From TrEMBL:
Residues 1-27 are annotated as: Disordered. This is Catalase. Signal peptide: none annotated. One of its GO terms (cellular component) is cytoplasm. Its EC number is 1.11.1.6. It catalyses: 2 H2O2 = O2 + 2 H2O. Keywords: Heme, Hydrogen peroxide, Iron, Metal-binding, Oxidoreductase, Peroxidase. One of its GO terms (biological process) is response to hydrogen peroxide. Belongs to the catalase family.
């Protein structure tokens, strides 16, 4: 027997005498309630699963490093992006959106692309997707949208009628729907897809000058997508295909990387740009605002423990550092609350103290107590502010920069906005073969829809984006294009 054998202990550190047999009254039992180790073992097992994420439940993660290749100090004072050669540790979590924790990796779904930078000024989270836009532009619609992606409350089955009913009644979704139903809807691997911050954010430099910014992570492996039939086969034969591929690539030293670019819009341009720059269903033309290289992200280390590092990782688009701030983007504004609140519910009030979420800099504040407070809980230090005992105080330089707010306080509709131009432009950019696959994917997804009026309403949106687009979908479904559109 090895001299280095470790003693098994209880969770309170006492040695375990027997881990194979419970304490019973005689050989046949019954089991005695005084077997406290048995009770502890079973009770802990019952609690080994925290609630899964409402969205982005299925995910894979990895550690890495971000290195600046182009100094951004003229635009932002955020140290993570300043100084060529500057290196910052980071962690990323990729995910599917709609499926449960055990769902397949190769379904048609957007992919979450959440990056946590462990900077010397605190953590910075960039919580985006593998698409530059989203289905909706206002967070008040998010619960309803996600309900359509989940299971029907009666049948507990996925419901295509609900999906297309919502999209057909939300024409702002057309741009994202077109991306989702195209080849890009099923990436070949997590390594072969781009990532985006999606929202518009504000950058502030040392002089207080502000700019609007969008983030683009371009995969250095090249974009590759899965054939629909291959994806379906993998969903049955290896539902963890993407998770496995990422782990194995890093494990053998084939470290995937992405080059980060940004688009920079001068603050004043937001008032005159031809699209609302804070509308997450729209992109900015790269002819108007070219991509500027920032740096390279390389994933070089797998998690040692999935639960501790991937499942307990918490990301929020409101986790900022000085020099990076939110924009008026309505979807972003809702996410600033919703994400952190989801983590407080799912993981606990002290989720940011867990090793995977803990900042490299020491957190100094007056937050106390709460479930699972496993550090010193502030010790005997002063626990309120302001105080006369030299407790931590605010830093004026870290204040959010002011910006002008105008207009009535009202619930403003986007009905008058253009939902179709960018979706049509995207359709026309696709090759003939890509358009054919896009239409085939849409037709296949819409055939199970129960009500014909939903199909016809959605066909109108496709037609308004591009007449060929709408006509081909209509033909595939054996339906006419509404006559008022073709006159």
């Amino acid at each position: 027997m090895s001299e280095n054998k470790q003693n098994l202990t209880t969770s309170w550190g006492a040695p375990v005498g027997d881990n194979q047999n419970s304490m019973t009254a005689g050989d046949r039992g019954p089991t005695l309630i005084q077997d406290v180790y048995l009770l502890e073992k079973l009770a802990h097992f019952n609690r080994e699963r925290i609630p899964e994420r409402v969205v982005h439940a299925k995910g894979a993660g990895a550690h890495g490093v971000f290195e600046v290749t182009n100094d951004m100090s003229q635009y932002t004072k955020a140290k993570v992006f300043n100084g060529v050669g500057k290196s910052t540790d980071m962690f990323i979590r990729f995910s599917t959106v709609a499926g449960e924790l055990g769902s397949s990796d190769t379904v048609r779904d957007p992919r979450g692309f959440a990056v946590k930078f462990y900077t010397e000024e605190g953590n910075y989270d960039l919580v985006g997707n593998n698409t530059p836009v989203f289905f909706i532009r206002d967070a008040i619609k998010f619960p309803d949208f996600i309900h359509t992606q989940k299971r029907d409350p009666q049948t507990h089955l996925k419901n295509p009628t609900a999906v297309w009913d919502f999209w057909s009644l939300s024409p702002e979704s057309l741009h994202q729907v077109t991306i989702l139903m195209s080849d890009r809807g099923i990436p070949a691997t997590l390594r072969h897809m781009h990532g985006f911050g999606s929202h518009t954010f504000k950058w502030v430099n040392e002089e207080g000058k502000t700019s609007w910014v969008k983030y683009h992570f371009k995969t250095d492996q090249g974009v590759k997508n899965l054939d629909v039939k291959v994806a379906e086969e993998l969903a049955g034969s290896n539902p963890d295909y993407h998770t496995e591929d990422l782990f194995n690539a890093i494990d053998k030293g084939d470290f995937p990387s992405w080059t980060l670019y940004v688009q920079i819009m001068p603050e004043e341009d937001a008032n005159t740009y031809r699209f609302d720059p804070f509308d997450v269903t729209k992109v900015w033309s790269q002819k108007d605002y070219p991509l500027i290289e920032v740096g390279k992200m390389t994933l070089n280390r797998n998690p040692e423990n999935y639960f501790a590092e991937v499942e307990q990782a918490t990301f929020s688009p409101g986790t900022f550092v000085p020099g990076i701030e939110p924009s008026p983007d309505k979807m972003l504004q809702g996410r600033l609350f919703a994400y952190a609140d989801a983590h407080r519910y799912r993981v606990g009030a002290n989720h940011n103290a867990l090793p995977i979420n803990r900042p490299k800099t020491e957190a100094k504040n007056y937050f106390r107590d709460g479930a699972m407070r496993f550090d010193g809980n502030g010790g005997s230090s002063v626990y309120y502010e302001p105080n006369s005992f030299d407790g931590p105080t605010e830093k004026a330089e870290a204040k959010t920069t002011p910006f002008n707010v105008t207009g009535q306080a009202a619930q403003t509709s986007y009905d008058h906005h253009d939902h179709y131009t960018q979706a049509g432009d995207l359709y026309r950019l696709l090759s003939e073969e890509e358009r054919s696959r896009l239409v085939a994917n849409i037709v296949g997804a819409m055939k199970p829809v129960a009500k014909e009026e939903i199909k016809l309403r959605q066909i109108q949106h496709f037609y308004k984006a591009d007449p060929e687009y709408g006509t081909k979908v209509a033909e595939g479904l054996g339906l006419p294009v509404p006559q008022e559109l073709v006159k």
